[in-house]
């Protein structure tokens, strides 16, 4: 019979021990390190140690926002599914995703734009101070940035980690110019699982 670790807590503990060891001499502030290690744990990709940018003070502000019950908006159902709902329920935080809404689909078809853009417009109207978690759609991030610049939204946090070849890198670089709390993975890498991992890392700190 194969001998392998079956206990989920032991698997996670050992995984983080391996991550810490393989990071070697790379040192991060304590909370930032927890976020970066959680991303690596999710992706098995150590490049995230070099491309993850967390603005100063962001993690404290993010924790405060969650404690206050500020709602979370995601750009995908996958990111929504990956966030720890049990932890969120302790603070009365809800997670919303508008991409599948009928009015969003109709408006996107009429204007010939992505559902992600229309969903973000709706999200901003309903949650102007929300925690925005974008792991897939650069168009969602571009739209949110536009809304911020126009004074229609003042997010408590933007997790900007869309993945892809068209607009992903550029949207993140635009986010880095904003004077708001953000967490970004520069370049093409990211994704819904990365976005969810970042929020979960913050939740586990509270």
Automatic annotation (TrEMBL):
The keyword Isomerase appears for this protein: yes
Listed GO biological process terms: cobalamin biosynthetic process
Alphabetized InterPro entries for the sequence: Cbl_synth_CobH/CbiC, CobH/CbiC_sf
Record key words, sorted: Cobalamin biosynthesis, Isomerase
Superkingdom of the organism of origin: Bacteria
Keyword Secreted appears in the UniProt entry: no
Domain Cobalamin biosynthesis precorrin-8X methylmutase CobH/CbiC: start-end pairs: 10-205
GO MF annotation list: precorrin-8X methylmutase activity
Pathway: Cofactor biosynthesis; adenosylcobalamin biosynthesis
Family: Belongs to the CobH/CbiC family.
UniProt name for this protein: Precorrin-8X methylmutase
């Amino acid at each position: 019979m194969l001998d392998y670790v079956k206990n989920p807590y032991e698997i996670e503990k050992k995984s983080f021990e391996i991550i810490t060891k393989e990071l070697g001499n790379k040192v991060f502030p304590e909370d930032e390190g927890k976020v970066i290690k959680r991303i690596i744990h999710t992706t098995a990709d150590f490049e995230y140690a070099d491309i993850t940018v967390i603005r100063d003070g962001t993690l404290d502000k993010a924790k405060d926002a969650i404690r206050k019950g500020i709602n979370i908006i995601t750009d995908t159902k996958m990111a929504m599914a990956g966030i720890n709902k049990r932890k969120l329920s302790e603070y009365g935080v809800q997670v919303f995703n508008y991409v599948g809404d009928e009015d969003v689909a109709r408006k996107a078809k009429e204007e010939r734009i992505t559902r992600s853009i229309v969903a973000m417009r709706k999200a901003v109207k309903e949650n102007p101070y929300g925690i925005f978690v974008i792991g897939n759609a650069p168009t969602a991030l571009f739209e949110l940035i536009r809304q911020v610049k126009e004074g229609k939204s003042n997010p408590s946090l933007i997790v900007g980690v869309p993945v892809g070849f068209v607009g992903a890198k550029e949207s993140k670089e635009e986010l880095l110019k904003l004077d708001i709390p953000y967490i970004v993975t520069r370049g093409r890498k990211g994704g819904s699982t990365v976005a969810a991992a970042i929020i979960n890392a913050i939740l586990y700190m509270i």
